[in-house]
Amino acid sequence: MPMNAAYRSPADLPSTLPVFPLPGALLLPRGQMPLNIFEPRYLTMIDDALRNGHRLIGMIQPDSAHPGPEDRPTLFRVGCAGRITQFAESGDGRYLLQLTGVARFRLEHELSVDTPYRQCLVSYGPYADDFVARKGEKAVDREALLRALRDFLEANKLKADWDGIESAPNEALVNALAMMSPYGPAEKQALLEAPDLKTRAEILVAVTEIELAKGRSPGDVSLQ
Known about the structure:
Largest sheet: 5 strands, mixed, barrel
Domain Lon N-terminal: 17-212
Organism: Rhodoplanes roseus
Pfam families: LON_substr_bdg (PF02190)
Shape: globular
CATH class of the largest domain: Mainly Beta
Number of helices: 6
């Protein structure tokens, strides 16, 4: 989705971000994520993000391997900044949003703040390539990705819009499939932290292979 704001480098993004910890949530650059906001602290966070003009929040997962207090879980070190590109009020106190991913960030440290939501000092420098749309597309093994997708859909008796899939650019295809994948927080974090699009696609294929193998008899043939 095109955005009214243009982000061309890490310098275009704020170094302080409000963060929304959400297990299993994966936002990637230029991907779209719908959100249903109902907790009072996050309603306040959205109000503030809209009021201050940058309309950015950081999506990040709690790190269940290193649990902290129940109301303040330890966070993974890598998340993704997203811009609020759609906003609606539900009429019953909720906000319905769509975030568009801008760039990944590294959490440097959490700030001591008075707001009910958490805020962190972040850096985008390690992910400067995120600002370049479709970077690394030619290195993606598209056939392996589509083969894994077909086998996953067949195994789960699911259908897909193949015309849309086959016409999608590699970046949009890899990131959309990663974001929609039904895998757990650890797998989602690995997909987020992949150094490039090629590696993200390879992780997605490998995780899909593993999941399919769990339901495969010993004599069945591998996907690849």
